[in-house]
Design goal:
alpha+beta; GTP Cyclohydrolase I, domain 2; 4-stranded antiparallel β-sheet; two-stranded antiparallel sheet; 2 helices; globular
Length: about 150
Amino acid sequence: MHPTYSVAKAKKSDRLTLLGRSEAKLPASPTKARLETFPNPARRNYWIHFETDDFTSLCPVTGQADFARIDIDYVPDRSCVESKSLKFYLASYRNERAFNEAVTNRILDDFVHACSPREAMVTAQFSARGGIALTVRAQYPDKNSKKAGRNGR
């Protein structure tokens, strides 16, 4: 015998301003972008995975494009991030000058601020420049912040 589940019906939310609107324009920068959320339909812990190979930001020194694959994994608490708003948010970095490490950490900070997940990890795999590829991983909560000092001691 299988347990029965009630399916949460989506109700129109004033908080979701992008979903179902084809006339929406990409934000000019991450500060103008908004990660939108909806109520978590489940009570259990479960992981949500987002990925895109279309991420672009700009090197703060040369202005050249940095291309990356971005993976976001999180365990939602009360809210889930709506995927179209995430797409627009990530696209808003296309003209943003910042080091790859700063970009990855800002994405995590903005994501945590938007949905207050139980856990989250952002992995950014930047394409090779000068023969060296770079991967940055930032996680929440920061498991090392209580154990180690600033120099890891």
